Amino acid sequence: MGLFFNAEFSKPFAGYGISVDNKIDEGLQYAQGKNIKAWVNFQTEDEEIVLIKVGISAVNTEGAKLNRMQEIPSWDFEQTKTMASQKWEMELSKIKAESNDKNLKKIFTHRYTTA
Fold this sequence. Notes:
Radius of gyration: 18 Å
Mean pLDDT: 85
Strand order of the largest sheet: 3-2-4
Largest sheet: 3 strands, antiparallel
Low-confidence stretches: none
Shape: extended
């Protein structure tokens, strides 16, 4: 099973590549395997912040892009954080559970990953 991602940056990057088994390949856009890392470089000013929005999918990169666009529509971090918190509370409000069992936390975690 693979994991696909789609990323959008707040400014264009100056360079990119993928490292496969710790061998850096500048400009590589696709790779398969187990030890894969992607990287990007930016030309920035002192103290400049570069933002990134990332979506993931277990299905394909198009699903990851759709997830990113739906889940993170704004570059405003506080707005995105508030929206995610509201969605989280809405999903959790569907569940009513009482227990002294420490495993109850697992139920809520699994609910989040299936929402």
